[in-house]
Amino acid sequence: MADLDTLRARFVRALEAARGPAGGPDPAPYADNLLTRWQEPQRRYHTVTHLAAVLDRVDVLETYARDPDVVRLAAWFHDAVYLPDRSENEERSARLAERALPEAGVPAAKTAEVARLVRLTVGHDPADDDPDGQVLCDADLAILASPPSAYAAYTAAVREEYHFVPNDAFRTGRAAVLRQLLALPRLFRTPHGAAEWEPTARYNLRSELELLEA
Predict the structure, then answer these.
(1) Mind listing the pLDDT tens digit for each residue in 98-112?
(2) CB distance 150 to 49 below 8 Å
């Protein structure tokens, strides 16, 4: 599991950078609230481990972003509300950001950008002129380019999150998600993601789809 103290410190740095010299209230309660959410018992993949991995990938890609700290805050909020049996998790997560960030001292424009980025993770299809969206979406999808054992662990965790779905229904739904991803002209939009992650991710997705359809 990811180190919670390290994650808390990373949130504090991103929040303080986003809100600027005007400052604001103590960041710790906001970090703790988010960390509590990311550790809820219904989560198997969308956990603090996933959060840390996305933040690590944002660090790798930060040179492509206009505002890396806003992207980092979006990473914190992008699955802050997560119930596997609900379809509006991203919207509810964006609304949480819209409530919490102004209270925490983040200016309105940056709060709006965080919420926009969170909503973008519904389809992972950022525009060509949206570098912050490209960085967040690439960081979120980077798990798809994992080595075989890590990819297998990822798919097993996703299945555990949807334990309440019968096997046939899960296979049908998961296959539809994989086809949707494979239909994207590019899974990764940053130069690093396109060069380093795209081929492996497509191989993993095709391999998983073949297993589901066997």
Answers:
(1) 999 999 999 999 999
(2) no
